[in-house]
């Protein structure tokens, strides 16, 4: 398998962590989708990463689809429950974490996209997205409480998704002081960073 992505992307990082935890072999191909010479549309018509290209050449895209597929490839370290309320809980955590990243990226693009003039940028839009980030962090902290992991007592996709969101916020929004406001989230991220899958994929 070939994974097309960028080391700074939190969605790509989520897939890379799942592959590491599942002990799956793959080739990592870095791609800057914002570059004029990007070829990502040849594999993903949406022009996004991550994109997983199979041995036969067919592509799977969107991180949620990819990680669900990967979890079926090996019985090692099952990350997503197969059915019922437990499955819905893990997928809801993933949706919440992805939503943090979605909102954060929209805010960052509004503030930094080079093809937009300063006069065209909307602070109200940025504030709206960052409010979603702050509300979601509060919800994450409340949902985690004093539990060792987001969904029960073992690592699951919930923790991987949340860890990727928190790590990306530290990377791109260091001014957001979420660690002081939600110390249980900081404790979770610190614990996750002890795992090689997280340490080896720290965004850069």
TrEMBL record:
Source species, domain of life: Bacteria
PROSITE patterns assigned: GST_CTER (PS50405), GST_NTER (PS50404)
Record-annotated GST N-terminal domain positions: 1-78
Domain GST C-terminal: 83-204
InterPro entries, per the entry: Glutathione-S-Trfase_C-like (IPR010987), Glutathione-S-Trfase_C_sf (IPR036282), Glutathione_S-Trfase (IPR040079), Glutathione_S-Trfase_N (IPR004045), Thioredoxin-like_sf (IPR036249)
PANTHER family: MALEYLACETOACETATE ISOMERASE (PTHR42673:SF4)
Name of this chain's protein: Glutathione S-transferase N-terminal domain-containing protein
